[in-house]
Amino acid sequence: MWDRAVELVPKIYAVARRLPSGSDANLGVRMREAAVSVADNIALGQAQPDPRDFLQHLSLARGSLAELQDLLILAGSMECLSALELRRLETAITELFRPLQRLDEVVLRQSAINDSR
């Protein structure tokens, strides 16, 4: 999962470079930050000994993915990327979001089992 998040970063950087400069530059900065945040939070979460901390980082990663998807939609509405490119990036986000959600459910279940012991 982390590797998919890392693979997404250069794709987002490429889109961000094409955004107009000036007042719209913040959109590109936010896109880059959100993309990096996904990978960072997956890695940070895996390093946590407490499952609740891991769950918190997984939640942050999913939130960053949602933010990234929203920013890409905005960039698409500004015609800074094609509809095809937007669909491809949204597919990559969905393919990352689903396993993150499943991992969250697994960790939550395991945490509940450990708490009941």
UniProtKB/TrEMBL annotation:
This is Four helix bundle protein. The lineage of its organism: Bacteria, Pseudomonadati, Pseudomonadota, Gammaproteobacteria, Lysobacterales.
